């Protein structure tokens, strides 16, 4: 799963050759209900706060859309781009049965628990088959994993957004991470060290964002989790964190094919409204 010099040790190729010889898994009865869309139920939503506003957005078909994206990147302001990745092959064909067919016996680090800032949160290595079956009914999340380093052929279905390159055409400067999970996975309000073009491949995710200018008012943890807020921004306790009511909060619903630009150091909370597959593209 680590980065390997394939020219001297072609281990990824060997792993894939072995995987291809292993028996695949039928998706029937092999996918936990948490990874299945339930059309009869309503997706959970973010309840608007008195201090929340919609994130600026544009549509990929708009004539001036790319100019607005470049302006947002240069000015370090979030922007939601509707249908920006709708023609990406991954958006058109990736589903949980498809990934199960491609990855059934590969092993990944999986998070166990509601969110990583909780005391009972942990991680465990498991095959994709066991992850998606989830026989113990745990809250599982395959989060921030460099899947394309481990399974390079899936990268053929992915197009890096143009704005990630800047003046360079070298994709090695872009870090790509996968996020795969059922509905109601949560990433608490936190910051990242690089710019992020977040692309929703499958399903819907809900975002709540706060400017880095308001860092003191989101009450970061001390120590190793200093990039993570103590505030539950889904339902903030204003008696414990009163200054959070004073910040400008930006909300967005990101659907399949949409992209959201998250500037460096901007605080962002993420919750999956449905079973979800996402890719984050970190760049400078």
Automatic annotation (TrEMBL):
Its cofactor is Fe(2+). It comes from the Eukaryota. The keyword Membrane does not apply. One of its GO terms (cellular component) is nucleus. Pfam families: Cupin_8. Transmembrane segments: none annotated. Residues 140-284 form the JmjC domain. The keyword Iron applies. It is found in: Nucleus. PROSITE patterns: JMJC. This is JmjC domain-containing protein.
């Amino acid at each position: 799963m680590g980065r390997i010099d394939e020219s001297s040790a072609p281990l990824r190729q060997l792993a894939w050759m072995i995987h291809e010889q292993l028996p695949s898994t039928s998706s029937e009865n092999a996918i936990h209900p948490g990874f299945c869309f339930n059309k009869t139920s309503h997706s959970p939503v973010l309840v608007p706060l008195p201090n929340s506003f919609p994130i600026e957005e544009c549509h990929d078909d708009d004539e001036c859309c790319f100019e607005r994206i470049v302006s947002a990147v240069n000015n370090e302001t979030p922007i939601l781009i509707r249908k920006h990745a709708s023609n990406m092959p991954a958006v058109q064909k990736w589903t949980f049965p498809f990934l199960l067919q491609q990855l059934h016996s590969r092993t990944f680090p999986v998070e166990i628990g509601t969110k990583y800032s909780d005391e009972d949160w942990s991680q465990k290595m498991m095959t994709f088959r066991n992850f998606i079956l989830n026989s113990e009914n745990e809250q599982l999340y395959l989060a921030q994993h460099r899947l394309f380093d481990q399974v390079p052929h899936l990268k053929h279905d992915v197009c890096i957004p143009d704005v990630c390159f800047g003046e360079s055409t070298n994709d090695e400067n872009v870090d790509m991470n996968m996020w795969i999970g059922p509905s109601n996975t949560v990433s608490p309000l936190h910051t990242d060290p690089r710019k992020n073009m977040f692309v929703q491949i499958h399903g819907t995710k809900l975002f709540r964002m706060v400017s880095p200018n308001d860092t003191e008012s989101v009450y970061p943890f001390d120590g190793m989790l200093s990039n993570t807020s103590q505030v539950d921004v889904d339902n903030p306790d204003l008696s414990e964190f009163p200054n959070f009511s004073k910040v400008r909060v930006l909300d967005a619903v990101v659907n399949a094919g949409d992209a959201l630009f998250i500037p460096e150091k901007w605080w962002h909370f993420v919750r999956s409204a449905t079973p979800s597959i996402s890719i984050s593209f970190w760049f400078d």
